[in-house]
Write a structure and sequence with these properties.
Strand content: 15-25%
Radius of gyration: 16 Å
Largest sheet: 8 strands, parallel, barrel
Bound molecules: D-xylitol-5-phosphate, zinc ion
Shape: globular
Oligomer: single chain
Structural class: alpha/beta
Number of helices: 10
Distance between the termini: 27 Å
Strand order of the largest sheet: 1-2-3-4-5-6-7-8
CATH class: Alpha Beta
CATH superfamily: Aldolase class I
CATH architecture: Alpha-Beta Barrel
Order of helices and strands: HEHEHEHEHEEHEHEHHH
Helix content: 40-55%
Number of strands: 8
Number of domains: 1
CATH topology: TIM Barrel
């Protein structure tokens, strides 16, 4: 199943992934329905432990609850100090992609290998100040690299263009690797990130602080298109939303 979900994530690209961080947690079922109707094809879940980052969000019960309300792939961003301690429960709860932070672990190769054994897609994330070199050999083992364009921990921060350099470099060295960017993505920065080689664009504020999810996602898709001229992909998305 995870393999099919990983393929669905690949097939969705280039895509806007709503981040379930600034949403209405009192109405998750309604939020998922609205986001799906607005054209979301993958959901990004921000798991924070109050230790790796100074913010606390949610764990397996929310992932499991979301899983019951949607067939969309669940892309789980683990901003936690001990990703392996929660990896299996997260996979059992319904996570399709598990992304760990390279800063959180001693041995990224070992972490990536153990996550792979769970049968989920595996992502490796790095904060703006963390050099690409810190990814080491693990980069060749993962399904996705998540380039943070803000320091992990909070929504609503300002986009850091250092992420664009990292995307360009990763795209050049790993042409087939799925590249995700997260933090400060709006209708302007999404074009820059697409032009730099991004595939998946995680968006919090620019969707959840907008009064219309369909309009927000359509505007972001237009931003992707303006960077690539990828008319076919956008048309396909618009047909899907019709
Ligand atoms: C931040 C999270 C992001 C966050 C993005 O640590 O990983 O997914 O929700 O929010 P915006 O789009 O507001 O920067
Ligand atoms: Zn995130």
């Amino acid at each position: 199943m995870a393999t099919a979900a990983l393929q669905a994530i690949r097939d969705s690209a280039p895509a806007v992934l709503p981040s379930l961080l600034l949403c209405d947690f009192g109405d998750l079922k309604g939020e998922v329905a609205e986001l799906t109707a607005a054209g979301a094809r993958v959901l990004h879940l921000d798991v924070m432990d109050g230790h790796f980052v100074p913010n606390l969000t949610y764990g397996m019960p929310i992932v499991e609850g979301l899983r019951r309300h949607t067939d969309l792939p669940l892309d789980v961003h683990l901003m936690i100090s001990d990703p392996l301690a929660y990896a299996k429960p997260m996979a059992d709860a319904g996570a399709d992609m598990l992304t760990f932070h390279v800063e959180a672990v001693h041995d990224p190769v070992e972490t990536a290998g153990k996550l792979k054994e769970l049968g989920v897609g595996v992502g490796i994330a790095l904060n703006p100040e963390t050099p690409l070199a810190s990814l080491g050999e693990a980069i060749s083992m993962v399904d996705m690299a998540l380039v943070m364009s803000v320091e992990a921990g909070f929504g609503g921060q300002e986009f850091n263009p250092i992420a664009l350099e990292k995307l360009r470099s990763l795209r050049q060295d790993h042409p087939d690797l799925l590249l995700e960017i997260d933090g400060g993505i709006d209708t302007d920065t999404i074009s820059l990130a697409r032009a730099a080689g991004g595939d998946l664009f995680v968006v919090g504020s620019a969707i959840f602080r907008h009064d219309s999810y369909p309009k927000a996602i359509a505007d972001l898709n237009a931003g992707i298109q303006s960077a690539t001229g990828d008319d076919f992909a956008l048309e396909r998305k618009q047909e899907d939303h019709a």
